[in-house]
Amino acid sequence: MAAVRIDQVRIVLGEILQWKFPADAVLSRWLRANPKLGARDRGEVAEAVFDVLRHLRRYRQFAESGSGPAARRLAILGLASVFDRSVLDTGLSEAEQHWLEHVLRIDVKSLSRAVRDSLPDWLDERLSTLHDADALIQALNAPAPLDVRVNPLKADRAEMLELLRNGAAARYSPEATPYSPWGIRMQGRPPINRWPMFEKGEIEVQDEGSQILAALVAPKRGEMIIDYCAGAGGKTLLLGALMRSTGRLYAFDVSAARLARAKPRFARSGLSNIVPVVINPDNDQRVKRLRGKAHRVLVDAPCSGLGTLRRNPDLKWRQHPDSLVELREMQASILRQASRCVAPGGRLVYATCSVLPEENEEQIEAFLADNPEFSLLDASTIVVDRCKNLTLQGPYLSMRPDVHNTDGFFAAVMERNKTSSVESTIPQGKDKLVDQPAPAKEAATDEPGALPQAGLAEDSASLDD
Ligand SMILES: C[S@@+](CC[C@H](N)C(=O)[O-])C[C@H]1O[C@@H](n2cnc3c(N)ncnc32)[C@H](O)[C@@H]1O
């Protein structure tokens, strides 16, 4: 068995290490091409492959000694984290057994941090400037639990927990997440997309940090909300449920393929207030029609994803300082364009799943310097409404795997002055306003039984007008 497994891991790694496609896409494709493999086989291959991606720099250094193809030695090192030595040894030659024994005895503390924790030099440098960098780096290198959340329109968390604990999911140790009131955390790799509660739209996969973002956007019933970078709809779904499927929730994205992936999720969720729209990145007429109209605009910006290394360890090898420069420009441009849709008194929420200040705090500081009609709000006072146990340092939502056991996640909330004119943000001669701005109305209460807010979205800001 070990010999077969080594070969399987070597083949998958061989393709991933060409860096043409994301690791999870390569792995899924390989698993689809090998449908006869059982759940245990799949789990072992996936675990070993991801272990190698997490520790690639260290393992490559270890693989310099020994003989035979380097990819095989990497596969052996990955499987050493999955199998007992006695099982693994049955697939190894005597020379390989000696080599493995030798490299596993190396004191990793004697290695430089970049090698020990397997970071490219540029990333080691950047992360080393962050508070408590060692703890952060180690947490980013550990596997993540699986977070799901209940759909508040269809399920209650306590009841769902009860159901999971008393069924086949019990072996994944389901627990309530500490901060999000909707989250359930499980260990291992539960096949949740085959569970009936998933098919019925009662639960969805979502990291707790992303769930908290919805609490920070804090949409209300009847409002008009724009999820400007909706992608496959992860954030849209919870926003729509918090609006109790009232008002209008635009799901914008430039990628038709990503929005198409969101559609089955929207269908499962039972939400009827979502309007998906594929937009052009520049001068989209439909975006212009919403200028100054939205109560809340969420920009879940394209980012390096370096906060999600627990789940996507290949990102540290796929990212590059040059791609970061491009991303920063794109983030600033999307933020600028999305901000124009915010109504006076409305809020703009910027989020990334990065831990790098250049994609986070520095973007916000630059935006606020250029857009004085926006001011920064204190995230902790907003989020505490729903996430009672979460205390934040400073004005931002800043989640870390070493502190909160979530992905690395950042968000900032900015409010447009109630008296600001929408034109003031638009450079002269460009982007003539199509509609007059509508002031954001007082937030309607989100309590059950409250009347939906008068139809700002329906009345004055429909894309179908
Ligand atoms: C971090 S992902 C969004 C993830 C999504 N919100 C979710 O929760 O599943 C960023 C998204 O921004 C989209 N994007 C890139 N450029 C954009 C632009 N100029 N305007 C709107 N969306 C854009 C990408 O296609 C991508 O889907």
TrEMBL record:
Gene3D superfamilies: Vaccinia Virus protein VP39 (3.40.50.150). GO terms for biological process: RNA methylation. Residues 420-465 are annotated as: Disordered. It holds the Pfam family Methyltr_RsmB-F. Residues 136-417 form the SAM-dependent MTase RsmB/NOP-type domain. S-adenosyl-L-methionine binds at D253, D282, D300. Keywords: Methyltransferase, RNA-binding, S-adenosyl-L-methionine, Transferase. One of its GO terms (molecular function) is RNA binding. The active site is at C353 (nucleophile). Belongs to the class I-like SAM-binding methyltransferase superfamily. RsmB/NOP family. PANTHER family: NOP2 YEAST -RELATED NOL1/NOP2/FMU SUN DOMAIN-CONTAINING (PTHR22807), RIBOSOMAL RNA SMALL SUBUNIT METHYLTRANSFERASE B-RELATED (PTHR22807:SF53). This is rRNA methyltransferase. It comes from Pollutimonas subterranea.
